[in-house]
């Protein structure tokens, strides 16, 4: 099957999707079988070859399933374990985290040690650890990063918090351990030899460690889809090989065979020294296979080399298929290989570079959107310039500075000065571009069926371009743009709406999205204080609120309703305004714009205030203001209480009002039809009185409350009163986020994130 190695890759991906058991595997298998039948009819495949491909799919479906970690229950009592440090994941002054292979249980753990008197952990050494097993927290909100799943894909199902530790034995002399220790020494050497700025970049581009980069650099590169330049991949390996070839053949006058042997040795060792990322192994293994076959009479097509590497790496480490760098590197490399004829037809290297950058950008769009839910269209231009700049200047000079720090240290000063001067200016320019021109399109999820259509059409684009079929090329490009367009307008075609109570601990947030994206409305958006209680924490916003909005494809907010000015109800609003366009802010007349909201008040164009008996309309969604009637001189009692109808159900949103105001509401409204109540003040005993619950006769109660909170919310009295009235209770400390999903013409359903 020479020249058909890519079909084995397709078979592997189908096997992986079947192992996931998420419904997409059947779809991928169906499409794959149709393709196989077409190729068989056109005599491109024999029945034997089809059988081999199906066996490969079956093998990998079992292979991926066998590497799934089963999460077993463990007690939280103190235990003693003995084992070996496999990998240092983070080493700071006040803590160290590492992967630890337990000898007794034969399990891989993530270990956290915050003790200052602990030994300096080294890879390969054996330690006795005393501490507590901790369950790895699972996400409790839609769109939230699944850290438990991430560690599970590394083969880790438990976290271990160290109380005491003791070195048992130094590591053995296994080559991998020695290489990893060498890497640690090289990282230290770069830090002590170069300036802080240069060391950070050399450590990142040569040794795969980004901890030394300036704050915000990774975010800027992510904003402009440039993170591939920070990941060691084929570009870095190609430059490394070029440097070895030049120095070996022209400086040291080595023979071609000796130089190739040296390259092979470096390719074997370099992935471990460079951090062991899948993209490094991919580039190194492909290059090593090419070098090995140079010594033999075996000649394969480049695509077969790449396919063989893909399968070998996944046999060795199946979990690499989840790695974003692994996906990007193979996808981009395949697209480049399939474009060789197009590249060779371009007259100038500049045109080739532009084509490669555009191709690399477009080919990863679906996966990029799938993971990050957004796209920056201006990044296409920046990618062309910055990829060229990194390829011809930054990466080569980083490798040169790395090597001469050992062999010719006297040359470091002039080259280091030149590197720092030029690269500081370029990073300042990129930072300015990011602040001035950054423009994102929040897309949301990229469904599997659209992904299949996109890559099928993308393949047609490349085929028509290679054959110079210009009319067909225009049609295929139009279809490609149509596919992306449908993904963008998908929320506006969706007849379903949602009401989501996010799990923010002791903070509140309720987000309403009406069918066909008619409106996006937020009622309160809280945040906690930092541990020092001196400033508002952005953690909940960055980890929960923003990912939720991004995943839903929400780019602008039609209105934010703020009940009152306490931080647990408004703390995340300044962060929201920085990232999203908010059309309207709605508050009560007694809302106090606290210092934390000063920037918000200055930046918004529309602030509206409403009191009792007022109504306001947000794109057809009508809200009736139930309270406040007057200034109660208490922030909680001044909460803006609103009643609205969603899916023919009446929702009463109450903020933090107390039972005193509840009584006045009952006096003002003899009949208050309510189906769903957001329980006031996290279920505190100061609200949700029995008389109030009797009067409104609700069916569902929503309680936003933090786990194990110091206030002991919700009150036992409130819970018992709700149970006594047959009220269905949803609470974020037990259910995580709670989402009400409804069709515009059919009744909705409450769906807790954790039933």
UniProtKB/TrEMBL annotation:
Pfam families (UniProt xref): Competence (PF03772), DUF4131 (PF13567), Lactamase_B (PF00753)
GO CC, one annotated term: plasma membrane
Record-linked InterPro entries: ComA-like_MBL, ComEC_N, Competence_ComEC/Rec2, Competence_DNA_uptake, DUF4131, Metallo-B-lactamas, RibonucZ/Hydroxyglut_hydro
UniProt key word Acetylation: no
Subcellular location: Cell membrane
Residues annotated as domain Metallo-beta-lactamase: 506-707
Residues spanning the membrane: 7-40, 46-70, 229-252, 258-277, 289-314, 349-367, 437-463, 475-493
Coiled-coil annotated spans: none
Membrane topology annotation: Multi-pass membrane protein
Gene3D superfamilies: Ribonuclease Z/Hydroxyacylglutathione hydrolase-like
Major subcellular site: membrane
Gene Ontology process terms (BP): establishment of competence for transformation
Annotated keywords: Cell membrane, Membrane, Transmembrane, Transmembrane helix
PANTHER family reported for this sequence: BETA-LACTAMASE DOMAIN PROTEIN (PTHR30619:SF7), DNA INTERNALIZATION/COMPETENCE PROTEIN COMEC/REC2 (PTHR30619)
Entry protein name: Competence protein ComEC
Naturally occurring in which organism (per UniProt): Pelagirhabdus alkalitolerans
Lineage: Bacteria, Bacillati, Bacillota, Bacilli, Bacillales
């Amino acid at each position: 099957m020479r020249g058909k190695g890519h079909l084995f890759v397709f078979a592997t991906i189908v096997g992986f999707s079947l192992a996931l058991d998420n419904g997409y595997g059947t779809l991928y298998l169906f499409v794959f079988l149709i393709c196989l039948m077409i190729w068989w009819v056109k005599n491109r495949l024999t029945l034997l070859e089809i059988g081999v491909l199906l066996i490969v799919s079956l093998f990998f479906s079992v292979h991926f399933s066998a590497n799934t970690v089963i999460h077993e229950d463990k007690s939280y009592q103190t235990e003693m374990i003995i084992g070996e440090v496999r990998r240092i994941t983070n080493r700071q002054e006040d803590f160290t985290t590492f992967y630890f292979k337990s000898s007794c249980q034969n399990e891989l753990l993530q270990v956290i040690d915050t003790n200052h008197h602990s030994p300096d952990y080294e890879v390969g050494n054996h330690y006795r650890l005393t501490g507590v097993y901790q369950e790895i927290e699972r996400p409790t909100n839609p769109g939230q990063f699944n850290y438990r799943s991430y560690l599970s894909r590394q083969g880790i199902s438990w976290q271990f918090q160290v109380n005491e530790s003791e070195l048992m034995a130094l590591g053995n002399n296994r080559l991998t351990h020695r290489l990893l220790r060498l890497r640690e020494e090289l990282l230290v050497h770069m830090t002590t030899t170069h300036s802080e700025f240069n060391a950070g970049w050399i450590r990142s581009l040569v040794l795969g460690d980004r901890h030394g980069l300036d704050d915000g650099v990774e975010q800027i590169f992510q904003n402009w889809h440039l993170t591939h330049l920070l990941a060691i991949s084929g570009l870095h390996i190609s430059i490394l090989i070029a440097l070895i070839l030049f120095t070996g053949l022209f400086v040291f006058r080595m023979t071609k065979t000796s130089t190739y042997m040296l390259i092979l040795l470096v390719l074997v060792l370099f992935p471990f020294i460079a951090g062991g990322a899948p993209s490094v192994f991919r580039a190194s293994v492909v290059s090593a296979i090419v070098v090995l076959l140079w010594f033999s009479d075996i000649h394969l097509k480049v695509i077969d080399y790449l396919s063989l590497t893909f399968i070998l790496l996944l046999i060795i480490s199946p979990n690499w298929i989840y790695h974003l760098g692994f996906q990007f590197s193979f996808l981009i490399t395949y697209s480049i290989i399939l474009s060789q004829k197009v590249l060779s037809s371009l007259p100038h290297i500049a045109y080739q570079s532009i084509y490669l950058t555009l191709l690399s950008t477009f080919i990863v769009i679906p996966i990029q959107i799938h993971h990050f839910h957004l796209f920056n269209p201006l990044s296409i231009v920046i990618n062309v310039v910055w990829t060229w700049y990194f390829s011809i200047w930054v990466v080569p000079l980083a490798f040169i500075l790395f090597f001469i720090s050992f062999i010719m240290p006297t040359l470091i000063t002039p080259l280091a000065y030149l590197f720092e001067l030029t690269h500081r200016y370029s990073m300042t320019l990129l930072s300015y571009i990011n602040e001035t021109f950054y423009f994102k399109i929040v897309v949301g999820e990229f469904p599997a069926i659209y992904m299949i259509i996109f890559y099928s059409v993308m393949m047609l684009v490349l085929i028509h371009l290679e054959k110079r079929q210009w009319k067909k090329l225009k049609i295929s490009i139009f279809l490609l743009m149509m596919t992306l367009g449908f993904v963008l307008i998908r929320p506006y075609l969706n007849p379903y709406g949602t009401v989501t109570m996010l799990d923010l601990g002791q903070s509140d947030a309720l987000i309403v999205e009406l069918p066909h994206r008619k409106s996006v409305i937020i009622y309160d958006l809280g945040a906690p204080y930092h541990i020092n209680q001196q400033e508002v924490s952005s953690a909940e916003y960055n980890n929960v609120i923003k990912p939720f909005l991004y995943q839903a494809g929400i780019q602008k907010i039609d209105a934010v309703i703020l009940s009152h000015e306490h931080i647990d109800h408004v703390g995340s609003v300044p962060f929201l305004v920085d990232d999203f366009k908010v059309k309207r802010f709605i508050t009560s007349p007694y809302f106090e714009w606290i210092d934390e909201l000063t920037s918000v008040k200055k930046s918004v164009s529309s602030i509206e205030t409403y009191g009792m008996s007022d109504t306001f309309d947000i794109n057809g969604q009508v809200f009736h203001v139930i309270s406040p009637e007057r200034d109660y001189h208490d922030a909680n009692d001044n909460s803006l209480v609103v009643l609205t109808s969603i899916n023919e159900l009446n929702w009463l949103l109450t903020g933090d009002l107390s039972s005193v105001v509840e009584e006045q509401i009952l006096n003002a409204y003899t009949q208050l039809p309510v189906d769903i109540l957001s329980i006031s003040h996290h279920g505190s005993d100061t609200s949700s009185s029995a008389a109030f619950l009797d009067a409104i006769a609700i069916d569902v109660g929503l309680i936003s409350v933090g786990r194990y909170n110091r206030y002991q919310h919700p009150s036992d009295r409130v819970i018992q009163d709700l149970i006594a009235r047959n009220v269905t209770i949803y609470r974020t400390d037990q259910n995580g986020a709670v989402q009400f999903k409804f069709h515009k013409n059919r009744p909705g359903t409450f769906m807790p994130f954790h039933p």
